[in-house]
TrEMBL record, chains A, B:
<dbReference type="InterPro" id="IPR036413">
    <property type="entry name" value="YaeB-like_sf"/>
</dbReference>
<keyword id="KW-0949">S-adenosyl-L-methionine</keyword>
<dbReference type="Pfam" id="PF01980">
    <property type="entry name" value="TrmO_N"/>
</dbReference>
<dbReference type="InterPro" id="IPR040372">
    <property type="entry name" value="YaeB-like"/>
</dbReference>
<comment type="similarity">
    <text>Belongs to the tRNA methyltransferase O family.</text>
</comment>
<protein>
    <submittedName>
        <fullName>tRNA (N6-threonylcarbamoyladenosine(37)-N6)-methyltransferase TrmO</fullName>
    </submittedName>
</protein>
<dbReference type="InterPro" id="IPR023370">
    <property type="entry name" value="TrmO-like_N"/>
</dbReference>
<dbReference type="InterPro" id="IPR036414">
    <property type="entry name" value="YaeB_N_sf"/>
</dbReference>
<feature type="domain" description="TsaA-like">
    <location>
        <begin position="24"/>
        <end position="155"/>
    </location>
</feature>
């Protein structure tokens, strides 16, 4: 067993059946500069590097009009995360454990990441954005206009978060 | 065919294979006051009615610590939505069509709703929140602390959205 899947002190895994309540399409693939977890930022920056959302057919036509939005919400599938932990001890929490739903850890029953990103450009079937914090080749499951209307442009320019 | 699944003028459906790239757990069930789409609000209000997130086993232990957060991000599965439209003409858009990814419509390849809600209380295995806009009995797929740190309390008190 790799160190990635070992349990830390206080962590609790459950015996869950195989998931089959609903199924997802991977509608595309995310290209980022990060190829290992160690170099991937914990939280994306709206001033971070440009990343690419490569959309697969038959979904490319669904991009029409996307360039009208300054910020998008991106959903992706954290396919390297285990799904059976209900209590976790994140690396930066000094050994304290917390319930999975009280954390934004990628380890969760349904490992879906949600990020708000800044729209940069549309190039054919690829959307360029800033603000992601996931590994290169992460499967994309959705993108839509962001609803976080209170994000002031000036404030987000100086924040490393969202 | 019901009127819900008829195409409007300009809408485009694609011939997509069955989705099977990844599978989801329904980790719980959302209880809201709305039992038909006509009465469901288009966008939740943080001052709206209290709704209940009923968590199923074996995931209840994952709630530990959730009460420390004022706002949560809730992900749910819009199980009544069709999944094959790439261009849509939403009811309030006066016949204009737009790409699915340029809309927050529930009709999308992966019909996942994302809402920011206000935490109200934890009662056993049920989380009480305000701010949802989905039908009663909607399957729940995730909840986690919200990252929309720029939402000022005063502003959200007077807004009907986000």
């Amino acid at each position: 067993m790799s160190t990635d899947t070992d349990l830390r002190s206080g962590e609790v895994a459950v015996d869950a059946p195989l998931p089959r309540d609903a199924s997802l399409y991977f509608i595309g693939r995310i290209r980022t500069p990060w190829t290992s977890r160690l170099e991937t930022p914990r939280q994306g920056s709206l001033e971070g590097p440009v990343c690419r959302l490569e959309i697969f057919e038959p979904w490319v036509a669904a991009l029409q009009g996307i360039e009208g939005f300054s910020h998008l919400q991106v959903l992706y599938w954290l396919n390297q995360a285990r799904r059976d932990l209900v209590r976790q001890s994140p690396r930066h929490h000094d050994g304290e454990t917390r319930g999975t739903f009280a954390l934004r850890s990628p380890v969760r029953p349904n490992p879906i990441g949600v990020s708000t990103v800044r729209f940069v450009a549309l190039e054919g079937s690829t959307v360029l954005v800033r603000g992601l914090d996931c590994l290169d080749q992460t499967p994309l499951i959705d993108l839509k206009p962001d609803r976080c209307v209170f994000t002031p442009e000036a404030a987000s320019d100086h924040d490393d978060g969202k």
